[in-house]
Amino acid sequence: MELDVLGENRRLAEENRSRLNMNGVRSVDIMGSIGSGKTALIIRMAEKLRQRGYKVAAIAGDVTGEDDFSRLRDAGVEAVNCNTGSECHLDAHLLEHALEHLDLKNVDVLFVENVGNLVCPADFPLGTDLRIVLVSVTEGDDMVRKHPEIFHAADMAAVNKVDLAEIMEVDVNRIAEDYERITGKTLYRLSVKKDEGIDELIEAMGL
Questions:
Q1: Cβ(95)–Cβ(59) under 8 Å?
Q2: Which CATH number characterizes residue 189's domain?
Q3: To 5 degrees, how large is the angle CA 14–CA 40–CA 63?
Q4: Largest CB tally within 10 Å, which of 52, 91, 166, 176?
Q5: What tens digit of pLDDT does each residue of 147-183 get?
């Protein structure tokens, strides 16, 4: 049964990918814990991309409520709210229906904010071009070691709130070393609040 669910999700993810690519949409699934700064990062990246002439939209995934959706909309980002009800992750089927509420021909970049979780989203690709994991120093320095699967599943990862590292007594270098050891990739360092590192991340995303 589990294999059937995962297999069907992969099939629907490929359909989503084809649909997005056909409409010329560059799409990014942003995963991470509650409070890591996913919504704030999307808002900041959307501001920068709009200044470059991109049309940006977002899908706000949450178990329930409209908090993140409202923040995106208030920041001027075209957004769709997507509640999972009881599931701890978005899946390709939910994204398929959320896409129906967007005029994809009028979207250049789509950010999908996944449900705040470092476990479940790893097994459920949505069909986006990129998958990014965002963590923050307020979660400690052992997130990569405790949740290696989601970092393996993602194309990129970043640590946010590095300006608070000293206060939180967290060694950002240790997080970066764990990530590089497990994936062989470089961890991006951000302070969304202070607008640090975001341009580098956008460039690495190919935008």
A1: yes
A2: 3.40.50.300
A3: 55
A4: 91
A5: 999 999 999 999 999 999 999 999 999 999 999 999 9
